[in-house]
From TrEMBL:
Catalyzes oxygen-dependent 5-hydroxyuridine (ho5U) modification at position 34 in tRNAs. The gene is trhO. The keyword Oxidoreductase applies. GO terms for biological process: tRNA modification. It catalyses: uridine(34) in tRNA + AH2 + O2 = 5-hydroxyuridine(34) in tRNA + A + H2O. PANTHER family: RHODANESE-LIKE DOMAIN-CONTAINING PROTEIN 7-RELATED, THIOSULFATE SULFURTRANSFERASE/RHODANESE-LIKE DOMAIN-CONTAINING PROTEIN 2. The lineage of its organism: Bacteria, Pseudomonadati, Pseudomonadota, Alphaproteobacteria, Hyphomicrobiales. Transmembrane segments: none annotated. This is tRNA uridine(34) hydroxylase. Keywords: Oxidoreductase, tRNA processing. GO terms for molecular function: oxidoreductase activity, acting on paired donors, with incorporation or reduction of molecular oxygen. Gene3D superfamilies: 3.30.70.100, Rhodanese-like domain. Residues 154-248 form the Rhodanese domain. SMART domains: RHOD (SM00450). It comes from Aquamicrobium defluvii.
Length: 333
């Protein structure tokens, strides 16, 4: 199972601080009643993206913000968490940059800090498709508000495509949506090419977690000559926030790239947990499997791991539990 390289548990940080403080992992204890989580992105001409890296990292670290922000020539993307005041300051700072006016931001809350570190990274793309010349600023699908999404995807002439990866779709998706079964977004263009015949003369409605991936997906599909292309504005997160559960066509939970693992209607934290051996999200039913052992194995990885692997995972899990008993944070958890 291939997971994005920028997930919070991956090694590698950028955490510069102003003054003469030595850069390092930012893991001081922060204990407000809850943390505000901001999922944000903006496609724009950000030619000076390299210059923004250090000041942006310093700004976040100085306010106890953690998470990941990606900067590229095509814009910014990421999810961060902090106190209400800190996140408000960050959004104000970002939108004060001329290129980032119109920043798309979706807010939710977490009972505990959902990230271990603050990382700001420079990338070729803020969402990696790997196809040159795709520019959502010049050609993109029609935005559909959450309040109008049900009507669109209930139309028999509409084909609904989940542009997320397979492990995300496994936790939940819209009723009747097509799952391309991609392990990474780089595989999506090939899937579209292989299924062009099925897309002809149909309304094509695409969605993703926060809106950025499906925005780029619609730009790609339109570049192939399709006209009736739509995407969910604000993504699944905005839909779950705005549409009441009793009216919803969403089934399951929505995977998020932080320690909450998933959210559901009203953006409440879901019941999914991660297998700490393979990082696959697990439902309560999957955690009832005989092959599931917290921190050591699950149905997805049990048969592909060696006894040596499981012994190593068991020792890590022991250290995690020991740190918890001592009231300390275990970064490797």
């Amino acid at each position: 199972m291939a997971f994005p390289h920028w997930w919070p548990w991956r090694v590698g940080i950028l955490n510069p601080r102003p003054g003469n403080v030595t850069p390092g992992i930012m893991n001081e204890t922060i204990a407000p009643a809850s943390f505000r989580v901001a999922a944000l992105y903006r496609f724009c001409r950000l030619e000076r993206f390299g210059e923004l890296r250090a000041p942006l990292a310093a700004f976040c670290c100085g306010r106890g913000i953690r998470g990941t922000l990606l900067l590229a020539r095509e814009g910014i993307n990421g999810t961060v968490a902090g106190t209400e005041a800190a996140i408000a300051e960050l959004v104000a700072w970002l939108t004060s940059q001329p290129e980032l006016t119109g920043l798309e931001v979706k807010y939710s809350h977490a009972a505990e800090m959902p990230f271990h570190r603050m990382k700001v990274r420079l990338k070729r793309e803020i969402v990696t498709m790997g196809v040159d010349g795709i520019d959502p600023q010049t050609s993109v699908g029609t935005y559909v508000a959450p309040s109008e999404w049900n009507e669109l995807i209930s139309d028999p002439d509409t084909i609904v495509i989940d542009t997320r990866n397979d492990y995300e779709v496994a936790l939940g998706t819209f009723r009747g949506a097509v799952d391309p079964r991609t392990a990474t977004f780089r595989e999506f263009p090939e899937w579209v090419e292989e299924h062009r015949g099925e897309l002809e003369n149909r309304k094509i409605a695409m969605f993703c977690t926060g809106g950025i991936r499906c925005e780029k997906a619609t730009a790609f599909v339109k570049s192939l000559g399709f006209d009736d292309v739509f995407h969910l504005k604000g993504g699944i997160l905005k839909y779950l926030e705005d549409v009441p559960a009793e009216e919803s066509l969403w089934e399951g939970e929505c995977f998020v790239f932080d320690e909450r693992v998933s959210v559901t209607h009203g953006l409440e934290e879901g019941e999914a947990e991660l297998c700490r051996a393979c990082r696959h999200p697990l439902t309560p039913a999957e955690r009832a499997s005989a092959k599931y052992s917290p921190g050591i194995s699950c149905d997805y990885c049990h048969d592909s791991r060696s006894e040596e692997d499981r012994a190593r995972y068991a020792e890590r899990q022991r250290q995690v539990e020991l740190a918890a008993r001592r009231g300390r944070e275990h970064i490797g958890s």
